[in-house]
Write a structure and sequence with these properties.
single chain; Rossmann fold; binds adenosine monophosphate; 18% strand; 222 residues; alpha/beta; 46% helix; 8 strands; three-stranded antiparallel beta sheet; 9 helices; binds adenosine-5'-diphosphate
Length: 222
Amino acid sequence: MNFIVFLGAPGSGKGTQAQVLADTYKEHVIHLSTGQLLRDAIAEGSECGLYAKSLIDAGLIVCDEVVFNLLEEKLKNISSEKRVILDGFPRTLNQAVLLENFLQKTRKQIEKVVYFDIADAELVNRLTGRFMCADCGAVYHKHYNSPQQDGVCDFCGSHDFKVRDDDNEFVVKKRLDVYHAETEPLVSYYDAQGVLFRLDAAQSVESIKKTLLKKIKLVAAE
Ligand code: ADP
Ligand code: AMP
């Protein structure tokens, strides 16, 4: 199991591309979103979910150890043959160190960090127009990226959609502030390690997908 990290601001398109790649390469690629792990914990009503909900709703990030423990637990059940796309983790320098220690311990590595580079103004449009499938979590946008058949999820056929509580303009602005303060320093951190690929995330979903497929060899797993 080796890792590809998708790094970028909320709304930069990490989840959209990870979901397309995981769907294209079902046998080889797993999409792991720490945001989704936390939303699952909230839906289960676990202690961790209760703690995380108020932070997420306020646009803040959850404590490093709590998120890392959730992630580590999930990774235990993933075959070592797979490539894992980490979407939304690490989000702080301390999380990058926790991941580094885990990789050393398990003799795994980060193959590539894809940085989704895009201006804040566009992110507000993207996040305030986002909606998702209530059953499989597939992500759409009311103008830029709607399901092929109106009202039907492309991935699972569900007719049920929802909007995230934290995708309102006030919370989005807070999330962007937190991103610049806590997560953006990871761009130079990974650049210095020589693993960063800077992607123009303002392109269309299709064109980014093509670029990613060229840049990352996703099929052959070590
Ligand atoms: P992230 O996972 O980085 O928070 P998402 O993948 O959920 O971002 O995308 C945020 C919103 O922007 C969604 O509504 C999605 O449909 C839309 N979106 C994603 N990629 C693009 C793109 N390349 N062009 C236009 N809209 C996009
Ligand atoms: P996302 O689905 O990536 O937009 O994440 C939704 C929310 O979950 C974020 O705004 C954070 O509050 C929380 N979250 C997700 N991933 C992390 C992480 N790696 N560290 C801390 N908080 C996280």
